[in-house]
Amino acid sequence: MRKRFYTLTRDLHLYLGLFIAPFILVFCISVFSLAYAWLPGASSQPGPPRTVGNVTLPADLENLDVRARIDALQTVLARVGVSGEIGWVQYSVKQRTIEFPVVVPGREATVAIDLATRIVTVTRRETGVWDALITLHKSPGPHLAALRMNWLPMAVWRWFADGTVYLLIFVSISGIYLWAVLRSERRIGLALIGTGVLSFVGIIYAVIH
After folding, report:
1. Which of 12, 69, 113, 159 has its CA 20 to 30 A from that of 146?
2. Are the beta carbons of 120 and 51 closer than 8 angstroms?
3. What digits encode the pLDDT tens for the residues 155-167?
4. Degrees (nearest 5) of the Cα angle 161, 164, 167?
5. Is beta strand 85-86 parallel, antiparallel or unpaired with respect to 97-104?
6. 50-126 maps to which CATH number?
7. 162 backbone dihedrals φ, ψ, rounded to 5°
8. What CA–CA distance (Å, rounded) separates 30 from 128?
9. In the chain, where are the structural domains located?
10. Which helix (H) or strand (E) holds 122?
């Protein structure tokens, strides 16, 4: 029974670790762009604006609450041929306009809606692969939680990101178990764990003092 449990744990440790490896690489590589603001290939110049007239708008769009307005704006995007994750929404009462960014990893669009004339203006900008990695890194976060994940592909990405965390915990715990079972590796394993703990404590101490 014990051997069977060991074999099952070893196989799950290996194959689940291989499965989440690409997701871990996304998070690891994107840290360099976050830390050093390194965005090669990004274009700071937006493309020419595209205007779509006589667009059918949802009823009472101005008076909807935040999340309901986001969902309603997604239907508008479908009518003008735009898709992506809607960020913040800026509504001007005086001018009766709504403006908001729409993000797809590697590309961003600014959408402006004139509620009086029902004219929608779309301006696109390419942000590049590195910015795409940053978008994926930050998306399942606490900021604007009520607005986030309003585009299905990003909602699916959140499921994968959450799953990566849970599987990483499993891989870590199962790795410690597999190491503990191998007696010949216990001494060096203890040395490495101790070194890791001391390094972590030292970094935390240096940061808070």
Report:
1. 113
2. yes
3. 899 899 999 999 9
4. 155
5. antiparallel
6. 3.10.450
7. -65, -45
8. 12
9. 2-38+159-208, 50-126
10. strand 119-126
